[in-house]
Every structure is written in C-alpha cells, then in structure tokens.
Backbone:
C-alpha cells in the first residue's frame, strides 16, 4: 500500500501513525463494504422463490443456478472480505458480480431509480477494485499467511 504520510515534513518516512493508518484503512474498507453483500445474501436465503422469480423475470437463463451463485458470492464473499481471506480474488469476483448485477437488473437508465442503482453498483465495484489493487492490509488472514 502506498505510504499514507500524514505528518508535515516527514515525506517518505514510516511513522507510527502511518503504519496504523495503513493497517486500519483496509480493515475499515472491508468492514464497510462487506455488510451490504452479507445482508443481501441473507435476504435472498429468506426469499428464495421470489428471488428466483425476479432473476427469471429479468430474462436470465438458469435462474435457480443464478440464485445459488448469488447467495454463495454474497454470503461467503462478504465473510471472506471481513476476515481478509483470499481478499484480492474474492474482491475481484465480487466486483464482476456487482457489475453483472448492474447490467442485468438496473439497466433501465431512463428510470431515475434504476439510474441511481446502476451507478451505485458501479461505485461499489470501484471500491472492490481498490481492495483488489491494494489487498487486505495488515489486519487480515492474508497477512498472517505471508
């Protein structure tokens, strides 16, 4: 991760504050983005038939398989993000999933609500790509495995 130098005149040095920020910022990012997916996945578990019907109504093939894949990505992906396990791979999969969801379910950009949801998904994918780029950080299972 790039040096987050927050002290005046200390360019290029690793201060205790910089090390703390470099450890906490990725942890906070993972903890802030993961609940969105976890709650969505748990909601899908509680409304399987409705979710499958919604996927089918969007015209996607294999609605039941799509439902299962969505639940797996959202629940297990969010838990892996929180733990910082295989973080870059998980975040990449979740970013692709999020863009695919935007294209499949929020593609009526003339509808203001759909327009907002589409670009919300794109922004979330951007945040996930930051995790792909910079990794899980010091406070993660990935860091323990190094």
Residues:
């Amino acid at each position: 991760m790039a040096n987050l130098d927050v002290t005046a005149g200390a360019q290029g040095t690793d201060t205790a504050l910089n090390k703390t920020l470099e450890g906490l910022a990725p942890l906070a990012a993972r903890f802030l983005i993961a609940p969105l997916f976890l709650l969505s996945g748990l909601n899908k578990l509680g409304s399987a038939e409705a979710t499958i019907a919604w996927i089918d109504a969007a015209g996607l093939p294999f609605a039941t398989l799509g439902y299962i894949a969505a639940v797996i990505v959202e629940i297990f992906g969010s838990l892996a993000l929180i733990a910082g396990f295989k973080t870059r791979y998980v975040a990449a999969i979740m970013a692709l999933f999020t863009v695919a969801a935007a294209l499949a379910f929020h593609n009526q950009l003339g509808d203001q609500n759909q327009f907002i949801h589409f670009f919300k998904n794109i922004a979330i994918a951007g945040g996930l790509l930051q995790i792909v780029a910079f990794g899980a950080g010091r406070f993660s299972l990935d860091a323990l495995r190094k």
Q: What stands out?
A: The chain has a mean pLDDT of 91. The CA atoms of residues 109 and 116 lie 8 Å apart. The chain has six helices and no strands. The radius of gyration is 18 Å.
